[in-house]
Every structure is written in structure tokens, then in C-alpha cells.
Design goal:
Pfam families: HAD_2. Helix content is 41%, strand content 14%. With 219 residues, the protein is of the alpha/beta class. A six-stranded parallel β-sheet has the order 3-2-1-4-5-6, sandwiched between helices. Helix 5 links the parallel strand 2 and strand 3. Helix 1 crosses helix 2 and helix 1 crosses helix 4. The longest helix is centred in the middle third of the chain and has 21 residues. The protein is globular. The termini are close together. The model has no long low-confidence stretch (mean pLDDT 96).
């Protein structure tokens, strides 16, 4: 078995519960309302809330004659606020098996497609910051959308911070596995309850049910 000198983790669905779809949609509705669009098409709400691309965002904004930067600023602020509120209301929790991260005898980091500010909030809110040597989310800009996983940009930055050579990446989505492959890393697909029925078109190096299983792999 490969010996690893660092482990990187996704955040939502791995360390903490993922955001509720309706919460994401309501944050997007609020952003549209802020810029004067009271009744956006549902397909546009879904696209913005579920991982819009740079080109897709510009197309949606053009449909309503919106300035893309202005709309995206509103969307990011409302989305960030909705996540903070969910954590504070105990509507989103950290997973119990996160305690296994402390058992890892190697350096650790977090790389997420969520906002960097939101990752920072989670780590502090749940007292997880001491477990990690570095962490990256994306900036709250349109440009950052092109740097999200499966792009390896933030993964490579984390690896550089850790000065690591053999790294394992743990995620709960196909884009996590693809990003790990792109960065030439071994990958773990964490099949939590919300991922029970997901079929992957790419094969992870490992598939597990718990972060305790990840600790066992690294040990």
C-alpha cells in the first residue's frame, strides 16, 4: 500500500453536512430580487445554485439584462450568509467521524469549491482549524468559477503549502475524483448516505463509508 505524507479533504459532504438545496435556491432568489428580478426562471435558479460556469452565468445575466459582476456579488453574499445562518441554527452539522482526522499521522488540508470565507467559518465554528495545516476555498469572484474542481488549481496550492509528495484526496463527488486524477493523486470516494446511489464514471483509488476508514488507509 502507498505511504502518504499528506491527506487533503473536501469539506461539504465530507467534514460537514452539505447545504440543503432549498437553502441554496432561496439565496439565489434573494440575489435576483436584490438586482430587480422578482421571478427568474427556475432553470436559471437551478443553474446558478448548482455549479454555474462562467459562460453560463454571463448567458443567464444577459437574459435579464443584468451586469454579471453585480449579480454575482449579490449571489455570493446571500449564499455565504445562508450558510452561516444554517450552521448557527444547527441545521448543518459536522460529521461525528471527523474525529478520525486527528488520528492521521501526516499533514492535512482542506480543498473545497465553497467560498474560502465559508471554509474558514466552518473550521472555526466547529473547532476544526487545529486539525489542518492549510485550507482553500475559492474567492467570491466570477473568475474563481473556472478554478473549481475538477480544476486542480487549489489542490496544487495546498500541496505546495504542505510540501508533500505523496498525497491522498478525500471527496464525495465525481469532480473530486477527477480532480485527484488530474493532479496525479490517489483518491478516496466517501460514500455517505447522500451519495448512496451515485454512479461514478471514473474509478476512485478507494471507496469507503467513513473517515475512520480513511484513517485506517493512511496508517
Amino acid at each position: 500500500m502507498t505511504e502518504y505524507d499528506a491527506v487533503l479533504f473536501d469539506s461539504d459532504g465530507v467534514l460537514v453536512e452539505p447545504p440543503a438545496r432549498e437553502t441554496q435556491l432561496e439565496a439565489t432568489r434573494a440575489a435576483f430580487r436584490e438586482v430587480g428580478v422578482d421571478d427568474p426562471e427556475r432553470r436559471h435558479l437551478l443553474d446558478v445554485a448548482s455549479g454555474v460556469t462562467v459562460d453560463g452565468l454571463h448567458e443567464i445575466c444577459a437574459a435579464y439584462d443584468l451586469d454579471a459582476e453585480t449579480f454575482w456579488d449579490a449571489r455570493e453574499r446571500h449564499d455565504e450568509r445562508s450558510q452561516f445562518e444554517a450552521f448557527r441554527a444547527n441545521a448543518r452539522r459536522r460529521y461525528d467521524d471527523v474525529t478520525a482526522v486527528a488520528e492521521l499521522p501526516v499533514k492535512r488540508g482542506v480543498v473545497s469549491n465553497n467560498h474560502h470565507s465559508t471554509i474558514e467559518f466552518k473550521l472555526d465554528f466547529f473547532d476544526l482549524r487545529p486539525l489542518f495545516d492549510t485550507f482553500y476555498g475559492r474567492e467570491m469572484t466570477i473568475e474563481s468559477l473556472s478554478l473549481k474542481k475538477p480544476n486542480t488549481h487549489y489542490i496544487e496550492r495546498a500541496i505546495a503549502d504542505l510540501n508533500a509528495e505523496s498525497v491522498l484526496y478525500v471527496g464525495d463527488s465525481e469532480s473530486d475524483v477527477v480532480a485527484a486524477h488530474g493532479a496525479e493523486l490517489d483518491s478516496v470516494f466517501l460514500r455517505r448516505s447522500h451519495r448512496r446511489d451515485v454512479d461514478l464514471s471514473v474509478a476512485p483509488t478507494f471507496e469507503v463509508d467513513s473517515l475512520h476508514d480513511v484513517a485506517a488507509l493512511v496508517k
